[in-house]
Amino acid sequence: MKINTADFVISNTDVSKCPKEQLPEYAFIGRSNVGKSSLINMITNNSKLAKTSGKPGKTQLINHFKINNNWFLVDLPGYGYAQVSKSKRQTFQTFIKDYFLQREQLICTFVLVDSRHEPQKVDLEFMQFLGENSIPFCIVFTKSDKLKLSQLNRNIKVYNKKMTQTIWEEMPQHFVTSATDKSGKEELLQFIDDLNLKVANNL
Ligand code: GTP
Ligand code: MG
Questions:
Q1: Number of domains in the chain
Q2: How close is the Cα of 39 to the center of ligand 1, in Å?
Q3: Structural domain span for residue 32
Q4: N or C terminus of the chain: which is more exposed, having fewer CB within 10 Å?
Q5: Residues lining ligand 1, CB < 6 A?
Q6: Helices 185-200, 36-44: crossing angle, 10 deg rounding
Q7: Ligand 1: distance of its center to the CA of 34 in Å?
């Protein structure tokens, strides 16, 4: 799929104020600093679309970006960022959870995990929350440019093992990406394109 237009639409902390249009929507979630906003910029070929930062906690709102006037990419705040005050962290969790529980247009969620790290409790818990609420998701390994291929494959294997040893029967579909070298872009866009087609055909 070719991205012709990518437009910022609205930011907020209230799911009831998200765009009302019934367009398919894809959300990016994960720990702070994992690379959610960078990946949105990489996919859309627009380094200025979503705000990124070397410091965790940059994205604090639900951000809707309209793509090709036809579907939405949603950039969300990160979870698991210890330096946000406890009360604020709670707010994140409540409105993030509300978003996932209430957003009917949400077709698939991409849970981003840093490909360098072992499976983290907070990510596994978040995926469990998605599973318990029947919210479809994929795993996206980020920052793959920082690893050698052999180490990358080893880490994905470890992740796979951890998931299937806990509550999952199988590893969800996964993607390996790098916002730096643009790997994984075509695979992600093809996946979204296929889902958009299914939605359009009511499949
Ligand atoms: P919050 O909004 O704070 O939750 O963070 P985020 O998940 O949106 O992360 P963001 O995209 O702002 O990126 C965090 C840092 O990681 C920035 O310094 C990025 O340049 C860097 N980064 C993101 N993706 C990649 C990648 O694929 N490779 C490398 N090497 N660095 C990356
Ligand atoms: Mg961000």
A1: 1
A2: 8
A3: 6-202
A4: C
A5: 32-38, 52-54, 56-59, 77-78, 142-143, 145-146, 178-180
A6: 80
A7: 5
Determine the atom of ligand 1 nearest the C-alpha atom of 181.
Answer: 27
Which ligand 1 atom lies nearest to the CA of residue 57?
A: 3
Residues 195-199 have a mean pLDDT of 95
What is the distance in A from the centroid of ligand 1 to the CA of 176?
15
Question: What are the phi and psi torsion angles at 183 (to 5°)?
Answer: -70, 150
Q: Which residues, including other chains, have CB under 8 Å from residue 138's CB and lie 6 or more apart?
A: 108, 109, 110, 111, 172, 173, 174, 175, 191
Q: What is the pLDDT of residues 33-66, one digit of tens each?
A: 999 999 999 999 999 999 999 988 889 999 999 9
From the CA of 30, the nearest ligand is: 1
Alpha-carbon gap, residue 86 to 134, rounded angstroms: 28
CATH at 43: 3.40.50.300
Answer whether residue 81 is part of any domain: yes
Q: Label residue 85 by pLDDT band (50, 70, 90).
A: low
CA 116, CA 98: separation in Å to the nearest integer? 30
Atom of ligand 1 nearest to the CA of 30: 7
